[in-house]
Amino acid sequence: MTIISDLSWDLVEKILARVPIFSIGAVRSTCKQWNRLSKVRVLCKAEAKRHQFLRFMLKNYKLCSMRFDLHGILQGKQFVDPSIKEITGDSLNHVKVTKVFHCDGLLLCVTKDKEENKTSLVVWNPYLGQTRWIQPKNYYYRLDVYALGYDINKRKHKILRFFADAYNVSLYEIYDICSDSWRVLDITQDWGIMFYHRGVSLKGNTYFFAKEKIVLEAGGPESIAELHAILLSFDFTKERFGPPLPLPVEHYIEDTGTLSSLRDEKLAALYQSSSMCNVEVWVTAKIEPNAVSWVPFLKIDLEPLTGFEFQFHHYGASFFIDEEKKVAVVFQIDESEMTCYDTAYLIGENGYFEKVGLGEADNHLDSIPMEDYCPLVCSCSYVPSLVHINSEFVKEEANEGDHH
């Protein structure tokens, strides 16, 4: 009888390459050798490549995996509903997740505490199955803004945290996963970032929509003038913000504006004026912490397609794009008289428009601020990562880096 140890490594690698990402736990429990191998190599490469549309979605405060394959629309086929599965068998099962951020194969999740206006923070590596709860110096608050990134020289992952309410930031802190410590950053506030404008990580840095602050009169109180928004990057290597960068359109506070990332190579910006139904999507031709240039990707007038003046929520929409199909998929919550629904809108060239229902939203949404809930989708397709976040592995990797 053939047993696992009798199999050739060539055959083992072919088998393990086809293992679904969320079944890797079964592989680890099969034998010690496979368990050790899975922690130093990404085994499910073929499966990850085949399901290059895998993303993570928040639905009813639960973290879900979502496969959103747009291949059929090129052949004129009717779109097939995405596969959305709640992630089970993990410590995140028993908490309510309100926000999620993705960087380098890691997810930073903000969870809802029982105490009003308090939250918790956890980093998760889906491939390694590791979670790490991050303890604050004092408390986390509902209006805190977070970003996940890394030092490009040492590949050390960090978390940026600041409190942003009506553009007033009182404190900037950074958490180093390797040293398990928070530090206060000395940053002068020359801009404002609203908490509902979620940052997007790209190449280790995070980009935000922001508003420049001005002083209305000498010696008078500072105020936010109605200036158009800028793009602002936080450099996790230098631990500081870069200079203000231009957005492709003049974006104001009531306009819909949100960022997305594409293969950790480009930024995409979606824009809709509060007074128009036109939706524009732009993609970066060049993106660096100190420089950016944009090219148009898509522009569509939604009024002829919806029959009314349709507007995406300025505080809740998230989206991703498919460059090959020239399609943007926008996620938001739709409200009817009695029920709320998570919804995906597919918009593309030549008036392509499709609305896809993703199921009923939580039935107690009327008791929470709308900006605290949306069917948020991480923009990047997930790529498995070998970044260890458990304390014993992190310290070991840090020591190895110091020896080098």
Automatic annotation (TrEMBL):
Domain F-box positions: 7-47
Pfam families membership: F-box, FBA_1
Xref: NCBIfam families: F_box_assoc_1
Record protein name field: F-box domain-containing protein
UniProt source species: Brassica oleracea var. oleracea
